[in-house]
């Protein structure tokens, strides 16, 4: 599949992406910022794609970390390897695994697990004819229940779990978190404009009950003009 090279100057990153396959969006930057705000030394990403999220986290944080990246699709995994090698992470160790996350055991117990998961039920809505996009966007191989079950069975009592999701799935996430006897520690509601309702949310899940924290993040202050906070997240200087 043909690729192109995207440069993210603010973070000194260059990433290959498949021209007609799954491509990253602002969701990746938001998730990276959300995770980078947590204290951790060992992170595990499920559905790593081209590697954008973990590479951004590595750039956003100062201390040495251990990253384990899991990607089931061979086409994306090949890009992942290429991008990690191209960007030569400054200080951290990266372990890359071309495996199905539902059946994988972490090489080390992570402090935090994070994912930009498929948003859409495979039985609903239009499915892309592009297989790479379809798997990345629809719950064909991976759904919330399987992710929560994996998290409970394969991580430590202090391991946290973070997602970025579309707002229409918020109540479903709350219900499933409660069903699995887990706890929501933090939610950031993401609004396109200050006077608009949120269209995305970032959620932090814990096995232990913590004081609940709620925040809002606005993307644009006017048409096509990012807020100062989002400029910072995107590395726009």
Description:
GO terms for molecular function: N-methyltransferase activity; nucleic acid binding; S-adenosylmethionine-dependent methyltransferase activity. InterPro entries: DNA_methylase_N6_adenine_CS, SAM-dependent_MTases_sf, tRNA_Adenine-N(6)_MTase. Its EC number is 2.1.1.223. This is tRNA1Val (Adenine37-N6)-methyltransferase. It holds the Pfam family Cons_hypoth95. The two termini are 33 Å apart. Residues 127-140 have low confidence and may be disordered. Helix 1 (26-36) packs across helix 2 (52-60). The radius of gyration is 17 Å and the shape is globular. A 9-stranded mixed beta sheet has the order 5-4-3-6-7-9-8-10-11. A two-stranded antiparallel ribbon has the order 1-2. The protein has 237 residues and is an alpha/beta fold. The chain has one domain: Rossmann fold (3-Layer(aba) Sandwich), CATH 3.40.50.150. It is built from 7 helices and 11 strands.
Give a quick set of tags describing it.
7 helices, Rossmann fold, 11 strands, single chain, nine-stranded mixed sheet, 237 residues, two-stranded antiparallel sheet, alpha/beta
Count of DSSP H/I helices: 7
Major beta sheet, specifics?
9 strands, mixed
Could you name the CATH topology? Rossmann fold
Name given to the CATH homologous superfamily: Vaccinia Virus protein VP39
What shape does the CA trace take?
A: globular
The assigned CATH architecture is 3-Layer(aba) Sandwich
Unreliable stretches (pLDDT < 50, length at least 5) are 127-140
Top CATH class: Alpha Beta
Q: Quote the beta fraction.
A: 25-35%
- Write out the strand line-up for the largest beta sheet, numbering strands in chain order: 5-4-3-6-7-9-8-10-11
CA gyration radius, whole angstroms: 17 Å
Number of DSSP-assigned strands: 11
How many separate domains make up the residues?
Answer: 1
Query: Average pLDDT across residues?
Result: 91
What is the H/E string? EEHEHEHEEHHEHEEEEH
Estimated helix fraction: 25-40%
Terminus-to-terminus distance: 33 Å
């Amino acid at each position: 599949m043909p690729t192109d090279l995207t440069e993210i100057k603010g973070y000194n990153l260059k990433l290959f992406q498949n021209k007609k396959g799954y491509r990253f969006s602002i969701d990746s930057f938001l998730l990276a910022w959300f995770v980078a705000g947590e204290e951790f030394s060992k992170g595990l990403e499920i559905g790593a794609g081209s590697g954008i999220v973990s590479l951004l986290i590595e750039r956003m944080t100062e201390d040495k970390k251990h990253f384990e990246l899991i990607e089931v699709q061979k086409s994306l995994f090949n890009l992942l390897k290429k991008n990690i090698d191209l960007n030569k992470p400054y200080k951290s160790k990266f372990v890359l695994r071309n495996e199905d996350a539902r059946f994988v055991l972490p090489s080390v117990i992570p402090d935090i697990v994070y994912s930009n998961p498929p948003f859409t039920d495979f039985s609903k809505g239009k499915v892309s004819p592009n297989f790479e996009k379809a798997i990345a966007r629809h719950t064909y191989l991976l759904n919330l229940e399987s992710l929560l079950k994996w998290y409970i069975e394969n991580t430590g009592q202090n391991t946290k779990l973070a997602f970025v999701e579309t707002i229409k799935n918020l109540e479903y996430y709350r219900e499933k978190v409660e069903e699995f006897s887990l706890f929501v520690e933090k939610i950031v509601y993401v609004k396109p404009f200050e006077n608009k309702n949120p269209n995305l949310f970032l959620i932090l899940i814990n096995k232990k009950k913590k004081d609940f924290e709620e925040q809002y993040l606005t993307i644009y202050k006017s048409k096509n003009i990012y807020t100062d906070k989002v400029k910072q997240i995107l590395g726009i200087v």
